[in-house]
Amino acid sequence: MAELTEDVLRGDLRALARAATLIENQDQSAARLVAEIRPHAGRALILGITGAPGAGKSTLCDRIISLLRAEGKTVGVIAVDPSSPVTGGAILGDRIRMQQHHADPGVFIRSMATRGIPGGIARATADLATLLDAAGRDIVIIETVGIGQSEVEIARLAQITILVLVPGAGDEVQAMKAGVLEVADIFIINKADLPGADKIEQELHSIADDRPVLRTIASEGQGIAEVLEAARSCKRAIHVPLEIGASIDHLGIAVRSVDEALKFYEEQLGLHVSTRETVAQEKVNVAMMPVGAPRIELLEATGPDSVIAKFIDKRGEGLHHVALKVPDLLSAVERLRSAGARILNDPQTGAGGHLYVFVHPASTGGVLLELIQA
After folding, report:
1. Could you tell me the sign of the dihedral formed by the alpha carbons of 33, 34, 38, 43, in that order?
2. Structural domain of residue 301, as residue ranges?
3. pLDDT at residue 97 in the model
């Protein structure tokens, strides 16, 4: 497993394929592999492309890949296909439309079957996105199975969600108002040379607020550069809001029993634990669950003098802290201290081997804040 992890982090294509198979098959070693590579992820732009069947998602993906490769960017593609009724595997329709890239080592395409999971994606999609991110891919594209009104799972995984629609879908837009339209970051009217493009654009502008509404003719490569620029603009707006370049790493939740709490998070919410460990200096047991790129961290005290035990005694179970990941922890600490923030500890190693500090709630508006070195 250590050798496989090392090969994955080098971007070795055979290792990527082997690791992807372990993840998709939910092999016992997959969780350990993902836990080992997760600290190396977080650099890629995760782009979700979704929409109804026949909207041209695969052709749009193909054109975006070509544009990215012309820029010298490496790309990972997770094409979620319908499941074969015979084998349960992916039908591979999406990969067929991207055949021009099959011999390009800068493009790694993996077809995954939904295996009956609703929401347009497969159960292992999040971990596979982490795999491609950690392997050094600049852009990871997740293309969903054709979805409908309420299937919005892609928005949990992708940093930017693109919804692809086609002319003639005016009534469909009205029906989708309470669903996927609410979570899309960018709206694409593909096949914009067909009648009805003006009408659907008008419908989208009435509900899009400030979100981009763009026209493309993907089969001819028209409008693709504008789509990519809109995605990058969204990422800049959403993910670099602070001068210190912070993004959410996890939410720490104090619980009396991790095992009892997991009955809700695993059985009811369908989340999966990526790693469990004991942090001796903090006197806590920790269970981490990915929720897209960020995670939920369950914290259980190992003794009555643990900070978590004292927190629960005083306030009960609940949100203990919010953790932000920063690219330069020491500079961030220095900047905060110079501004008068109360830093509770010198940088030290915590769960997952990350360097961290805590900022007192008095400086943050009442919430204990953890800063973690990316």
Report:
1. positive
2. 247-373
3. 54
> For 273-291, b where at least 16 C-beta lie within 10 A, e where not — what string?
bbbeeebeebbbbbbbbbb
Q: Which two tokens stand for residue 78?
A: 């997770």
Q: Judge if pTM exceeds 0.70.
A: no
Domain CATH number, residue 231: 3.40.50.300
Q: Which of 239, 270, 295 is the last residue of a domain?
A: 239
- Per-residue pLDDT of 296-335, as tens digits, reads 999 999 999 898 998 898 889 999 999 999 888 888 888 8
The two tokens of residue 183 are: 């979570």
Are the beta carbons of 131 and 19 closer than 8 angstroms?
yes
Instruction: Say if residue 357 is exposed, middle or buried (CB neighbours under 10 Å; 0-12, 13-18, 19+).
Output: buried
Tell me how far the alpha carbon of residue 73 is from its chain's centroid: 19
* Run of H or E including 324: strand 318-326
Contact present, 371 and 324 (Cβ < 8 Å): yes
For residue 89, the model assigns a pLDDT of 46
* Contact criterion met (CB below 8 Å) for 165 and 52: yes
Q: What is the pLDDT of residue 78?
A: 92
| DSSP code for 80 | E
Q: Is the dihedral of CA 289, 231, 144, 67 positive or negative?
A: negative
Q: Three-state SS for 219?
A: helix
User: Any idea what DSSP says for residue 227?
Assistant: H
d(CA 30, CA 351): 19
**Contact between 244 and 326 (Cβ < 8 Å):** yes
Name the stretches of the chain with pLDDT < 50: 83-94, 116-120, 149-150, 239-242
